[in-house]
Write a sequence for this structure.
């Protein structure tokens, strides 16, 4: 096989792989209770292994490296969100300005 063909196929693989970190990044706004920690850990581990593999092959595939680094960070962020949700409860409560002002001052 020619090096051109190898680079082309590697680029296509990296381009298709970008759907995983894009989906993870888009899910950052979803409720952390919907995060599956087993699948997220699997995806993070997969990306960490292939981060190393993408530069160990000849020729190195830097597009795939960028994809897997991005996915590792995105999955680690999702795991952090899930962990925060499990240890800290539902959602962080926000205090409104009016709830912190004494009632006597509010009624004036």
């Amino acid at each position: 096989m020619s090096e051109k063909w190898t680079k082309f196929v590697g680029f296509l693989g990296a381009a298709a792989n970008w759907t995983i970190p894009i989906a993870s990044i888009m899910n950052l706004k979803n409720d952390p209770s919907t995060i599956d920690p087993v699948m997220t850990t699997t995806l993070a581990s997969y990306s960490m292994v292939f981060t190393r593999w993408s530069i160990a092959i000849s020729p190195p595939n830097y597009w795939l490296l960028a994809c897997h680094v991005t996915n590792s960070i995105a999955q680690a962020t999702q795991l952090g969100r899930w962990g925060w949700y499990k240890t800290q409860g539902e959602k962080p409560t926000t205090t409104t300005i009016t709830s912190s002002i004494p009632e006597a001052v509010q009624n004036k």
In short: The chain has one domain: 3-106. The helical segments are 3-17, 19-26, 37-56, 62-88, 97-100, 103-106. The chain has a mean pLDDT of 83.
